Amino acid sequence: MGKHVIAEFYECDYETINNHELVEDIMLKSVDLSGATTIKSVFHRFSPYGVSGVVVVSESHFAIHTWPEYGYCAVDVFTCGDLIDNQAALDYLKEKFGSKNVSVVEMKRGVLNLGVDLHHKPVGN
Amino acid sequence: MGKHVIAEFYECDYETINNHELVEDIMLKSVDLSGATTIKSVFHRFSPYGVSGVVVVSESHFAIHTWPEYGYCAVDVFTCGDLIDNQAALDYLKEKFGSKNVSVVEMKRGVLNLGVDLHHKPVGN
Fold first, then answer.
1. In this complex, do B110 and A72 lie within 8 Å of one another by their Cβ atoms?
2. Quick one: which of B107, B20, B61, B43 has its CA closest to A105?
3. Can you list the residues of chain B whose pLDDT is less than 50?
4. List of domains in chain B
5. I want to staple A66 with a disulfide (CB 3.0 to 4.6 A). Which of A17, A70, A112, B30 is the partner?
């Protein structure tokens, strides 16, 4: 099945999470640290503040939305296969965002009725 | 707060969910129907099968991953503000994917500690 980590990062550093280039760099590095493979990414900075971005990976996606005005980021790490180290990604994000308070929920995706594991997609296609 | 709809579409039409252009069209139309505003989208087709795509919207994101070989799609509709009709999007996706079995979970995002509503981002910036 797929594993979907739904993380709330509170009390983050304003400047960091309002900088879309920095947020993109941090997210791409977290993908690398997890062992996932980046396919494409798209990031956008809103005015006056806020960043949204998604990295499509072979194993599904990493997504982030930031509300710098509240020191808050919503992060999703949705991966398939058993080889991804989600915790490494989350630890890195917590450190880089300077978050003092993280809440994490993990859901399994595609369980009902399938009875099979969802494999990540082949790389390089 | 943000509203995150996590939907599993089972028993979908193989050809539809294996066609990345069609999946992108359907997802973009579902964004329109919900009343959300598309910022950027990125879609990718894997070989031999499977589509991944994300639409970044002012209100957060719509994401999809398809496993045509299992007739399964994982869909996320993450929106902020009270003006988005998620159900219209889900109904449209169910119809277009020919899904006979849909499972939906809704989570609230960014609730803990904030005590404020998460507004969507201004359009056009």
1. yes
2. B107
3. 125
4. 2-109 (3.60.90.10)
5. A17
